[in-house]
Amino acid sequence: MVKDFEKVMETLSKINVLSNPNNEPVTIIGEAEDMRCVGIGTDAAVFQSENAPAYAFKLYAKDKAAKVMLEEDVYRKLGNSPFFSTCYGSNGNCLVLSYEEGKTLFDCILEGIHIPEQVIQDVEEAREYARSKGLNPRDIHLKNILLQNGRAKIIDVSEYTMSGNDFRWEHLKKGYEQYYHLIDGKSVPSGVVETVRKWYNRRGKKSLSFEEITTPILKLFFKD
């Protein structure tokens, strides 16, 4: 655990994370000068401290705090792997992880940064590794994968104890293989990407084919 762990926890206590309905990103209330937010998800927000820059502090919304122990257990089962962050422990509704450099694939799409095929291969290998540890690698999407020196690093494993397949990764992989060349190296407007994200997340429990998913997306991207 970090040397200034107690000081960091005291600083984090000034920040409150609130969950939102419809699978929307959390809301952050409060701030601290020596903390910066480096990521926002639907259950938690991730912070980096000036006093301990090598660590990431994943602060869950209070009503999602039960997920802390579940995610910590997933990291314990994963052990040391180049494909995942390192977990150093937890405190209340906060998980302490290694801070990982790199841009998410979501940001790569926005900024027109090339996503190499090696990233796709790395995620496939990471999923196989997770399965070998008795886990179910799911909820793998553009915001949960970092591009790190041309390789993939997965930064959220909170759903790996859940059953079923959400097909997020399968859809992304197929989309990459069939359509990524059309936008490779091009900046995609954030409004377009957010529209696609929200539409996809609101599919609910509908089991749509890849074609049913991609047809409206292609019309949105190439409406002209």
Automatic annotation (TrEMBL):
Determine the domain of life of the protein's source: Bacteria
* Annotated protein name in UniProt: Serine/threonine protein kinase
- The species this protein was found in: Solibacillus isronensis B3W22
